[in-house]
Amino acid sequence: MSIALEIITPEGVAWSDKDIDSVVLPALDGEIEILPGHIPLITILNAGRIGIKRGGNEEDLAIDKGYARCMGDVISVLTEAAIEVEDIDYDAVEDAKNEALKAIEQAKLKKNLDEVEIERLEAIARFSIAQLLAKGKR
Amino acid sequence: MKGMREIRNRIKAVKSTGQITHAMELVAASKMKKAQHLAEAGRAYAVLLMDLTQMVGIGAKSQINDSSVETKSSKRLIIVFSTDKGLCGGLNTNLFRAISEIKDENVGFIAVGNRAARFLAHAKRNMLAKFSISDHVKFSETRRIASAAIKLAKDGKFGSIEVLYSLYVNTLRQEPTLVKIAPVDNLEIFINRLRNSYKLTTQERPHEDRMMNFEPSIEEIRKELPSYYINQAIYHMALDAKASEHSARMVAMKSASDNADKLVQSLTMEYNKARQNAITTEIIELSAAEQISE
Question: What is the ipTM of this complex?
Answer without folding.
Answer: 0.86
